[in-house]
Design goal:
Structural class: mainly alpha
Number of helices: 9
Helix content: 55-70%
Strand content: under 5%
Order of helices and strands: HHHHHHHHH
Largest sheet: none
Distance between the termini: 21 Å
Radius of gyration: 19 Å
Number of domains: 2
């Protein structure tokens, strides 16, 4: 339990950093400089106002200088990251595999909110995350349906992760290509394809494909419901597909032990 609680505290800190990434990477800005500041009045934020969750509560959700409202996303991302880190370490123990899933969860959270807010899936998260996932597959492989077809070596683990990343991404790209030819408009963004590769290399082929299906169904059902309720034009509304894929990925890593027999 102490390891899980430590992971929770560490997750809060990572969540605070994720908020910086969510705000800056879609605008091609550095996450290092300039230092954190209020987007409304540009005043630098002191260290004691950067304590995850606690600072938001003590400030009443407003900037100390100009009293502009702090977006709800900041505490939500911090708390969500902390809770997921806690659950993963509690379930899988202080292991390399738990660490790998924590890294994956952090990437998914950042992608969920960047796509929801900006309709963008930054390469720093999709391509960078896929590269990290391939490396982590060597030391902490995900049990998969194709594992029995390869000898157990670092190279075979890397190949399996590459196949798990490439095949679902290829399926989605092919579906998007067919849709664009049939409807004469873009059906699937390249960012979504890159994200599916990310899902595959972390979750494995079986779970990656399942997550793609789950995210697609959720996107279709909830997206259509949202369009109907708000009266938006279904032909022009841009569905944040990456948000649904991220949510489906988070479901997979939280319930994977029961659903996928990890």
């Amino acid at each position: 339990m102490i390891e899980a609680f430590t992971a929770f505290l560490f997750g809060l800190l990572i969540g605070s950093f994720l908020n910086v990434c969510i705000s800056r990477w879609p605008q091609d800005l550095s996450v290092v400089r300039p230092r954190s500041h209020c987007p409304a009045c540009q005043a630098p934020i002191d260290w004691y106002d950067l304590v995850p969750l606690a600072s938001y509560i003590t400030l009443g959700g407003r900037c100390r200088h100009c009293h502009a409202r702090i977006p709800w996303r900041y505490p939500v991302v911090e708390l969500l990251t902390g809770v997921l880190f806690f659950l993963l370490v509690y379930r899988f123990g202080p292991t390399l595999f738990a660490g790998k899933l924590c890294v994956f969860a952090a990437i998914l959270i950042a992608l969920l909110f960047t796509d929801l807010e900006e309709r963008l899936l930054p390469d720093e998260l999709t391509l960078g995350g896929t590269a990290i996932g391939l490396l982590l597959a060597i030391v902490a492989p995900t049990p998969d349906v194709i594992s029995g077809f390869f000898p157990q070596s670092w190279l075979s683990r890397l190949i399996m992760a590459g196949v798990a990343a490439g095949l679902p991404a290829g399926v989605l790209w092919s579906a998007g290509w067919i849709y664009s030819k049939a409807r004469h408009r873009e059906g699937v963004g390249l960012g979504d394809v890159k994200m599916v590769a990310l899902l595959g290399c972390f979750l494995g082929l079986e779970n990656g494909l399942f997550t793609l299906i789950l995210g697609s169904i959720a996107g279709a059902v909830l997206g259509l419901a949202y369009i109907k309720l708000t009266g938006k034009d279904a032909a022009t509304y841009e569905l944040p597909f990456g948000t649904f894929l991220s949510a489906a990925g988070l479901v997979a890593i939280v319930f994977g032990k029961q659903m996928f027999h990890w």
